[in-house]
Design goal:
This protein is of the alpha/beta class. The protein contains 18 helices and eight strands. The strands form two sheets. Strands 3-2-1-4-5-8 form a six-stranded mixed beta sheet, with helices on both faces. Strands 6-7 form a two-stranded antiparallel ribbon. Helix 16 crosses helix 17. The two termini are 42 Å apart.
Length: 488
């Protein structure tokens, strides 16, 4: 047991009245315990608290610390020693004026504060303007003496709740940061454990109402505005007392934004950041939430590795559903059309190893290029299309279906692409997509046109997933990959 722990044990005995401390018979156990901490433990308490508070202590000193005084003066004393301001203003009520002398004896001494830099004022704790006027007056005095705008912090550790609320309003008006000591209560000591406090600085008083700000960020996230949500969460992470949740949501928002953009270069970085942030916020999330997120993270890792073409097709369809639910018709049409293209191209390449839809070599098809051309023209005629002078230089949806028809592919019937009417519908929905402002047209897609495209896409994707899926129903994959709602 080290010296500090020995003193903690002695403090516990003093506080429960088992051991007296000092020569003042009028002091009870609580006052004796406070005096023991100031006489025997203060330097060690300050040092230990400073180790926990490194991130909150400004690199440059502050001009003025305004501290709300409660029944215990220890908060003000400790905050002063951590921040070492040039001047200290203690604000208390009539009930707490007994703490002023204790604070003064602890901070006004050689090497610390001079008497002229220690000030105390009494306020009406229920009057917000009372606290505001006191702080504003002292700020003006310091500014006038220094001929510059002073740096100041308001410490709300010791004040009653109503005083802290009034100080927060004053800080809002004066654009000042707030700070307070956060510690762990010990039932044995009936107070915070000395040396385990941590100084927290709230650069914006709005951080006191972090739940409200988190609600606003959550609304952005749940609406699919991932850019705005990421920025809002990132700002909150700098100010809320417990930033782990905001940091996680900022990372998740960034990952979803990259996913929406299909930024395959950025996604791996965002996945790594989300995993790291989830580890720190793990205790805030449910088992069910983590299971879904882990599925999504694993999916994105496979997607960016290019291991499975089915993952990209599924991704197009999932993002199409997302844009459809947001009412972004042209974006949804583009993505559903890409899903159809991906499914048909993958199926054709699977049936014809070595075939490239972007640079087709028709010689790899049984019968050779001449026979393929003849059969291709016949397939066009069966579905009511005019003949073409040559085989397509790029294999699109219609060409892929006609080539699969030559191969008597069994996927065409369940994909509803086996009859001339179904093939013409595929061609027509491709024309609908081509007419979009996001493709080669100048108009937005109509709701009716989009419904036709989605209907064709769903039939193709259902049949495709039966061939290349992971054994789970397509509806389940959609459900698990859908962007999750914010958990907090």
């Amino acid at each position: 047991m080290d010296d500090f722990e020995v003193k903690l044990d002695r403090l516990e005995r003093i506080l429960r009245g088992a051991e007296p401390y000092g020569n003042d018979p009028e002091k009870g156990p609580i006052d004796q315990g406070l005096q023991f901490q100031l006489d025997e433990m203060l330097d060690a308490i300050v040092e230990r608290t400073r180790e926990h508070s490194v991130a909150a202590i400004p690199a440059h000193g502050i001009d003025l610390l305004v501290s709300l005084s409660g029944f215990s003066p220890m908060g003000t004393i400790l905050t002063y020693h951590l921040l070492r301001p040039r001047q200290l203003l203690v604000i208390g009520s009539e009930e707490t004026k007994g703490s002023i002398n204790i604070i003064a004896r602890a901070v006004v001494k050689e090497g610390l504060l001079q008497y002229s830099n220690f000030n105390h004022e009494q306020c009406d704790p229920t009057d917000p303007l009372s606290i505001y006027r006191l702080i504003k007056a002292r700020l003006d005095q310091v500014a006038e003496a220094d001929r510059r705008l002073p740096t100041a912090v308001i410490d709300i550790t010791g004040g009653k709740k109503v005083m802290s609320a009034a100080a927060a309003l004053a800080a809002w008006q004066l654009d000042l940061p707030l700070c307070y000591l956060d510690g762990r209560f010990s039932p044995r000591l009936r107070q915070h454990i000395p040396g385990e406090d941590r100084l927290l600085v709230l650069p914006n008083p709005a951080a006191l109402f972090g739940d409200q700000e988190m609600d606003r960020a959550r609304a952005l996230f749940d609406s699919g505005s991932f850019d705005a949500a990421r920025d809002r969460y990132a700002q909150l992470a700098k100010s809320v007392p417990e930033p782990a949740k905001a940091r996680f949501m900022a990372a998740l928002s960034g990952m979803y934004r990259a996913w929406c953009d299909l930024d395959l270069d950025l996604i791996p970085k965002q996945v790594a950041q989300t995993r790291s942030a989830l580890d720190r916020a793990d205790h805030h999330t449910s088992t069910a939430f983590r299971a879904v997120l882990e599925e999504q993270l694993a999916f994105l890792e496979r997607l960016t590795s290019g291991e499975n073409s089915a993952d990209l097709v599924l991704c197009f369809a999932m993002l199409g559903r997302f844009q459809l639910n947001r009412g972004r018709k042209d974006f949804a049409a583009m993505l559903f059309h890409r899903a159809i293209e991906g499914a048909l191209a993958h199926r054709l390449v699977t049936r014809l190893p070595g075939f490239d839809c972007a640079k087709p070599d028709y010689g790899v098809i049984p019968g050779g290029e001449t026979e393929v051309y003849r059969r291709y023209q016949a397939a066009l005629a069966r579905s009511g299309f005019p003949p073409e002078k040559a085989l397509p230089s790029i294999v699109g949806n219609l060409a892929a279906v006609l080539l699969l028809e030559m191969l008597e592919d069994p996927m065409l019937a369940p994909a509803r692409l086996a009859t001339p009417e179904e093939v013409r519908e595929l061609s027509q929905v491709s024309d609908i997509r081509d007419g979009s402002v996001l493709a080669r047209g100048s108009r937005s897609i109509s709701p009716a046109g989009l419904d036709r495209l989605v209907k064709v896409a769903n039939a193709v994707l259902d049949a495709y997933w039966q061939q290349y899926g992971d054994g789970h129903a397509l509806s389940r994959r959609y459900e698990r990959l859908a962007f999750i709602k914010a958990p907090f």
